[in-house]
From TrEMBL, chains A, B:
This is Helix-turn-helix domain-containing protein. Gene3D superfamilies: Winged helix-like DNA-binding domain superfamily/Winged helix DNA-binding domain. It comes from the Bacteria. Pfam families: HTH_34. Residues 16-95 form the Winged helix DNA-binding domain. PANTHER family: BSL7504 PROTEIN.
Length: 99, 99
DNA sequence: TTAAAGTACTTTGTAAATCAAAGTTACTCT
DNA sequence: AGAGTAACTTTGATTTACAAAGTACTTTAA
């Protein structure tokens, strides 16, 4: 494949999904609200991107509590880690050809 | 700005525009047909992305000839280089926080 | 105890982006 | 004349993105 963009993952074309993944790579898990604040998104927008990520098997969801309040946290699956690393490798590959 | 995606450039959310820019960073200039083949795109699709890039002042167009045939080449402007480097820096920044 | 607020969504509706395919203009080559 | 090439533009369909509002439930404050 000579095509420099052929190995990029379409799921990660979205800046928001890219942001979610990069946060979850550092944090191991993050709550809905933390993600919302870090990425400065509306509820609906975040929820739909999380949903896309989950549908692709890249995220897992854990519904729990903090005290008495519901608290949903998200973390990356094995497949998600693999896919994300693959995407980053493709990106770096593309960029490396520049310098 | 704590938001990890806040410094990404929206123009470069598109994999195709990312690909065009990365090719033109290496090649100094490239013809319509070369870009089309490298990125495996239809005429219309490529033309519209080139147009977006040009509208943003990131690309300049040179209409010339190869022998008697028309030959349009594209190259990156100063602003384009700056914007693209800024985007890459933002990307690398985001990625660096991971490792 | 009632009202306000928080959590995590889903639904709705709109606007924007993406793309292939076909059409167009202006050649050139045979 | 007829086919072919280059570089588009136009059209139309599909997908994506997003804000805003609505939902269901719980909790905290007055």
């Amino acid at each position: 494949m000579n095509n420099p963009i052929g190995n990029l993952n379409k799921v990660f074309d979205s800046r928001i999904r890219l942001g979610v993944m990069s946060i979850l790579m550092v944090n191991e898990e993050s709550s809905f609200n933390d993600l919302k604040q870090m990425l400065e998104l509306t509820d609906g927008n975040l929820a739909s991107h999380l949903n896309t990520l989950e549908e692709n098997g890249y995220l897992k969801v854990h519904k729990g509590f903090v005290g008495r309040k519901t608290n949903t946290t998200y973390s990356i699956t094995k497949a998600g880690e693999k896919a994300f690393k693959g995407h980053l490798a493709a990106l770096e590959n593309m960029i490396r050809s520049i310098e």
